[in-house]
Amino acid sequence: MKDLVKVDSISQYNELKAIPTRHPLITAFDSSTAKPLHSGNFSFGFYAIFLKGVNCGQLQYGRNNYDYEEGTLVFMGPGQVVGIKSQKDYNPKGFALLFDPEFIKGTPLAANIHRYNFFSYELNEALHLSKKEQQIVKELFLKIDYELDQNIDKHSKTIVANNIELLLNYCERFYDRQFITRENLNKGILSNFEKLLHEYFHSENPKQIGLPSVAYFAEELNLSPNYFGDLIKKETGKSAMDHIHLKLIDIAKEKIFEADKSISQIAYELGFKYPQHFTRMFKKGTGYTPAQYRNSN
């Protein structure tokens, strides 16, 4: 990417923000006391959580622009690229927490960090907090900030990592609430997903592209794969891949009764490279092999 600025360490980030480095692997600060980043494209080598107190500029992530709004919580994972368009003469408010993957090594959080899918959500899928939720998040930020001001001892890492994990667990709860409160919007996404599934398997795509992935449908719906997958799971109780497989089996049941086609031909038309993979998936979903299903009906 043109003019990409790689910020690999916490100390490098602190230098850009003109704030002191209290710990080489983690930083927490009030944004109003820090220097704004200049406009440009940045890649961070660490986890970042930003709570914005006012509208303070526009970010670009992937194909989408996103305006920070009051009470918005944004997450970024290591290696993500974000474009920042800074406004001149503004005084940002809010809190920021950034930590290197090395900081949580050896803690329970290190084993669980992969489950927090929102670190790979796009910026337009940010978490919007109520006033009460904002207060909970701020209190946890302040606890971490307080701990970083103390002399480091054998308890420091555990206490800070536990507070980060508690913050992330609250954010999981808040995202669940956000999925529920956006029920009407989610139903529209579900409807469009079903439409896209139908169109895909009734086109030449299976032959030309192969079996569709969750990422394919997420891109068609302008969502990140993890956000899309989480939304489908929360709304239906089934994963997006489960929906793809169910649709695939429904279409396969129809095609199996086309007596002039072999099972191998049907497998190819559905996007399978190898007929045995189709047979295995069909039997798992129905209890019958394709040939058994054809003969029994």
Automatic annotation (TrEMBL):
<dbReference type="GO" id="GO:0043565">
    <property type="term" value="F:sequence-specific DNA binding"/>
</dbReference>
<keyword id="KW-0804">Transcription</keyword>
<dbReference type="Pfam" id="PF12833">
    <property type="entry name" value="HTH_18"/>
</dbReference>
<dbReference type="InterPro" id="IPR009057">
    <property type="entry name" value="Homeodomain-like_sf"/>
</dbReference>
<protein>
    <submittedName>
        <fullName>Transcriptional regulator, AraC family</fullName>
    </submittedName>
</protein>
<keyword id="KW-0238">DNA-binding</keyword>
<dbReference type="InterPro" id="IPR020449">
    <property type="entry name" value="Tscrpt_reg_AraC-type_HTH"/>
</dbReference>
<dbReference type="InterPro" id="IPR018060">
    <property type="entry name" value="HTH_AraC"/>
</dbReference>
<feature type="domain" description="HTH araC/xylS-type">
    <location>
        <begin position="195"/>
        <end position="296"/>
    </location>
</feature>
<keyword id="KW-0805">Transcription regulation</keyword>
<dbReference type="GO" id="GO:0003700">
    <property type="term" value="F:DNA-binding transcription factor activity"/>
</dbReference>
